[in-house]
Amino acid sequence: MKKLFLIIFLSIFSLGVAQKKKKAKAKVVAEKETVIIYTLEEAESTAEARIIAGFIKQNPGHEKNDKLKRKLIEMIMADNSIEAKPTIKPLSKNKIEKIVSNNELNKGKNLASNTKTAT
Predict the structure, then answer these.
(1) Which of 32, 99, 108, 115 has the most CB atoms at less than 10 Å from its CB?
(2) What is the pTM of this model?
(3) Residue 39 · residue 55 · CB < 8 Å
């Protein structure tokens, strides 16, 4: 009986191993890029750096590239301007005293309890 179970187990195990798929070698699939053609009107009227850069890349010898390059650089550098970055100002002593003395912040929360109070 033990031999019969052993034979059945080994046959099922061997069938499972035999049908196991081998790992296929990974093939590099080059995905086709969708080419978007940008026009001069789009590049001049847009506020997106991606469109201007795309037009300059697609039309390297265009006569208005210098103007568009300047516009592109201004757009990119605007993100790094000092006005765009937050400034940290120290708090004065008066403001700190107002915050500390504020009663709403110092009040403890009343928690509900299940205990009965004697009335």
Answers:
(1) 99
(2) 0.41
(3) yes
